[in-house]
Amino acid sequence: MLEWMLAIGGxxxxxxxxxxxxxxxxxxxxxxxxxxxxxAYTLNEVVLDQLVLxxxxxxxxxxxxxxxxxxxxxxxxxxEPEAFARAADALVEAGxxxxxxxxxxxxxxxxxxxxxxxxxxxxxxxxAIVRSVYGAVAGRRPVTVKMRRGMDDSxxxxxxxxxxxxxxxxxxxxxxxxxxxxxxxRYQGHSDWSFLARVKTHVGDRVVLGSGDLFAAxxxxxxxxxxGVNGVAVARGCxxxxxxxxxARALLAGLPLPPPPTVAQQGETIAQHFGWSVETHGxxxxxxxxxxxxxxYSELHPFAGEVRAAFIAVKTTADWQAVLARWYDPTRDxxxxxxxxxxxxxxxxxxxx
Length: 353
Description:
Blueprint: E1 6-8, E2 11-13, E3 17-19, H1 28-36, E4 42-43, E5 47-48, H2 49-53, H3 57-62, E6 72-77, H4 81-94, E7 98-103, H5 108-112, H6 123-137, E8 143-148, H7 155-171, E9 175-179, H8 193-203, E10 207-211, H9 217-227, E11 231-234, H10 243-252, H11 263-281, H12 283-297, H13 304-313, H14 317-327, E12 338-342, E13 345-348
Parallel strand pairs: 3-11, 4-6, 5-6, 6-7, 7-8, 8-9, 9-10, 10-11
Antiparallel strand pairs: 1-2, 12-13
């Protein structure tokens, strides 16, 4: 449906539901899984500008964009405008389709180094970074900004937020993604969707994506409908649940919500994810990385507790294969899968919301 398309600069997306940058999660294998299940656009996990600029194994990994990994955004974090700009240029040269500036990370270590969400308290410093990055890549790739709704709930914090928001758009950024929590909240409490609606009314035709508390396809549609944002960026809600993208596509097309994935379908996706992780990271690292994914995938299994425990105990590739063979055997007559409706909230297939 044309009304649900999303444009981020020159990127024309056929659905306004994208995978957010997720620290420690949104590597190439996760992005591939998200695309396979309907994500229109994905972002790499946030990286420090200095890692992009320092020769070595990590730099090579960051600046290698696979042919099937498009469109993909590269999200950067740092504190120095000049280094930020050089790193942005390097990501463009590597093949990233968009450069995203992180002013939203609430991790204490990040804040203590004057990065991420800290910059929401320093409008001049934040805008110097935007200006520098835009100057380095303008005309080659769209530049976007990720923000939270401020450092805290004070009037001064809100004024700083709107100062950065308005000036960033004036400088030429293509879109701003806004998480409805403050930096001080981190991941506690509810995301303030009413604030997203205020922002969208304030900026008019400029492109805003909303984020926060998107754990089900219905949440994505509801955020679009109630706030007026142009798109939504799904973060924690898609870890272990890539089906949220295909489900959102169905709802936005006016179709019924698809049934939750069967155990066999879950197993197929997990096996593919693990295979891509081995291909990308090597067998030893893949086992460690995929453990946290397995724990999240287990939430959709009708025997979630037992499967979670099995994934926690995994140490080797053989262990992985044993879990898949036992708990995702496609020849068994499994009960229906489970649908996630929120953090820690699940419902069985056939139940009503």
